[in-house]
Each structure stands twice: as structure tokens, then as C-alpha cells.
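lol so apparently i was supposed to do this last week
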Amino acid sequence: MSSLFYKDISTNEYVSGCLLCDEAPCRKACPHSIEVDTIIRSLRFENKAGAVNKLPNLLPCDTCEEKPCKEACLKGKINESVPIDKVMKAISTESRVKENEVDLEIDFCGVKCENPFFLSSSVVGSNYEMVAKAFEMGWAGVAFKTIGMFVPKEVSPRFTALSKENVPFVGFKNIEQISDHTLEENIEFLKRLKKDYPSKIIVASIMGQNEEEWTKLAKLMTEAGADIIECNFSCPHMTSKGVGSDVGQNPDLVALYTKATRKGTNLPILAKMTPNIGNMEIPAMAAMEAGATGIAAINTIKSIMNLNLENFESEPNVEGKTSVGGYSGKAVKPIALRFIHDMKACEELKDAPISGMGGIETWKDAAEFMALGCENLQITTSVMQYGYRIIDDLINGMKLYLSSQGYKNISEIVGSALPNIVPTDKLDRDSICYPRFDRQKCIGCGRCYLSCYDGGHQAIKVDINTRMPILLVDKCVGCQLCSTVCPARAVEPGKRVKK
Ligand SMILES: Cc1cc2nc3c(=O)[nH]c(=O)nc-3n(C[C@H](O)[C@H](O)[C@H](O)COP(=O)(O)O)c2cc1C
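anyway here it is w/ flavin mononucleotide bound
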């Protein structure tokens, strides 16, 4: 794949500090009306091809003496402005990508969706105005904030985020329960949304406390105009017992409540699964056997975060106390993908439609979920962090990628990665890839040596004069720790050879 679709450390470094302002002053300041903010946003959301396509034919940045964009950049008020001119110049050498006709429309559980991108059930889709705004911006559907027969009493604060090396929201923890609107208010929201946006898809997420409530909620949501019902068997921090992930961890309860939901509706039913379990296939099979149409996964992972070692309190801190709460965002993506894989690899579930979620931020994340078999995608944490506008680069980035690979419809990539994930005993254990060092790119930092010595097989030494790494082939096991840690991308796996 061309560098436009691969990670690019040069521009990444420039744009990683961008504050992604709401009404970006850099754009307003540009005398040449360049969409500086959306170009940088596209780069941040791994849509470099989209960024390149937004550049004007002749880039005026070189001759623009005053650099008013950099002057206006609010990051300059914190430390240094984003080097906007350098970013524009760096990408101006790339060729534009032609966007051929690509169809993002996809069938999910028999429901036609204009694209696979839905808001997942949470605060991001919890009233009429929010969802209407998201629909206007291009989201194809919403899994509305979970609706129950009761309104929970919530705490403050209820969120906290894990950061690493100044990257916020590496992971996110919440202890919020279901909708804080009454059942009647929620029904009104759904009715109005369906009336005003008939082609958008409304997934009504519900949570009952007993069979009667599941049936009743399913019936009410169907009458309100929902297209799909999603059973929340997975919230990990409910205050009452026998609901949320208590259900998802128990296949008998999953079956009981799926059956009860089926009694109240003829619509497709999604069973939303908890990742707080070893084998998701077991409750997922119970749901499918009991009448579910598909699976939604994953809900949040039970977690404890940001423990203060002076007072031993952790976050979110409610008067000195916290509770185990749900972990979401970028950090959970590999875990979500493995659960989805496990269900798709299971004979009984391989044809069950899956709505995938957990850490989706960019079109690449989205494409990974689809390549593992999801026909539909849901997103919360990255919308909380960046707003509904992430849909721009999800759609544009996905279209450019699909078109560059010669696909005509997004459904063509669904499941494409599954044959390449095999049990560990099926992996080739008779060959090896030694690392290849690129001496032009190597900066002599010694990180490969250090990691190989302390965390590998002591197979690298450093030339004391040049600081260049030298491979000790006899000791190297081809683990590629060196290429993983190299900050200059100067180490790559070499050709695979017989051991
Ligand atoms: C603040 C917050 C509130 C949530 N509320 C609900 C909810 O009401 N019902 C539900 O099924 N999932 C809820 N979730 C879980 C999300 O729908 C989603 O499954 C999870 O966050 C993983 O996706 P993400 O990494 O894109 O956020 C919530 C998540 C967050 C962060």
C-alpha cells in the first residue's frame, strides 16, 4: 500500500500536538482560504490521502511571509504553535488520489444502512438534538442511550482518562449507567427522530429488570419506530444486581431475556455482549438460539484507573471513593477484535451478523473490524473526545482506501482477514526473519541494542565508533523487538529464511 495509507511519522509528529479546536483560528487566519484545520484533522485521523486531496493546486505557503496561521494557532499559547506551513509542504509532494465510485451502503440484519457508522449506545446519543446533529453530519444510525423502566441516580464526576506521554484518552473509564431521561421522554425522542430522519437507522438499546420489562420495552420501542432492538446485557457498573454484565456473564439469563425481548418485537434483535468473560461465544450462542438476529460487541471492560499514591484514592473520585467501571477507547481495540474473531471463528456463530465496537477512531480501525467480519460499527469514546465530526474522515478515508484497492462496495472487505488468523499450532515454526538495519535511516540512538539486551536475546551490539547496530546472527531469534522499538523506522524484518 502506498505511503498515503501507511503510518507516516514525519507528518504525524507535526500534527500530533494540534489541539483540534472547534472553530480553528488557523483556518480563519489563512489569507488563501486553505482548509488548514480539516487538512490537519484528516492527518490526525489517518486519512492522509484525504488531506492531500484538500490542498490547493498551487500551495502558497512558501511565499506567505507572515504565517498568520501559525500566529493564530492556539497551541502557541500553551507552548509552540503547530508548524502548519511545514505540514502543508510535507504533504504537497504527494500525488492526489483519485476517488472512484465506491458504495458504503451495507445490509445489516436485513436493514439497509447508508454506511456502517453508528453512534454506540451512550451519552453521545442520548436526546433528539444530539442524534439529529449526528445524522445531519453523516452518521448512518444510532444505538440510542440504553432505555429502561427506571431513571438511575448518577454520580459526579463519572469519567476519567488514562494518558501516556501526553496522549490523552489512550483509554477511558466511565461509571455511568443507563439513560437519565424518563421512558416517556425517550419514546418521544425516538418517534421524532424516525419521523424527521426516516432513512437513518435507530437501534433502541434497552435494559429490563425482569422478563416482563424486557418484553414491554421491546414492544414500546417497536411502536416508537425503532429499526433494531439492542439488548444491553453488558453494562459493567449497574447499581442493582442481575442486570447489565451480570446477565451477559450468564448464558441462561441471556437466553431468558432474549426470549422475553423476542416476545415483544418482530424487529431484528442484537444481543450486546460483555467482554468481562473468557469466551464470548457461549452467551452469544445462547442469545442466537433464543431468537437474537445478531451480536453487538464489545461493551466496556471492568477497570480501576488513576490511583493517587498520596491519598490512595482513584478516579473518577466521588468524595474519596470510586467503583470498578467500564474501560473503553483506543486501548481496548485489540481486545474487541479478538472477541469478534472468536465469534466469527466459531462454527455456530460464523453467520451471525456482528456490530463491532471498542476503540474505533479512524477509518483504519473501522476497516479492521470489518475485515474481521463486522457489517456494522459503533463508536462512543472517540466521539466524546473529538465530536461527531470524526465521521468526515471515517467516510472519506474509507472511500479513498476502498477505491485505491479496487473495491466497489464496502461489503467486499467483510471477513477478509479471518483466514489469516489461525490457532497457534498452525503457525510456521520452521522459518525466521532476521532484522534488516537501514544505515541511512539509523540515528545511532541504541534503542534496539538496549531492548534486545534487556528484553530480548542479546543479539545486537553497537559499533563504538559509528553507534550503528551490528546483528549477532547466532543469537538472533527473529523476534523483531528491535524493529518494534526503533524510533526512526530504521529496522525492518528481512526476508523469511529456513531456520
Ligand atoms: C460514557 C459512556 C456511557 C456508555 N453508556 C452505555 C449505555 O448506556 N449502554 C450501552 O450498551 N453501552 C454503553 N457504553 C458502552 C459503549 O456503547 C461502547 O460499547 C464502549 O464504550 C466501547 O466503544 P468505544 O471504545 O467506541 O467507546 C457507554 C460507554 C461510555 C464511554
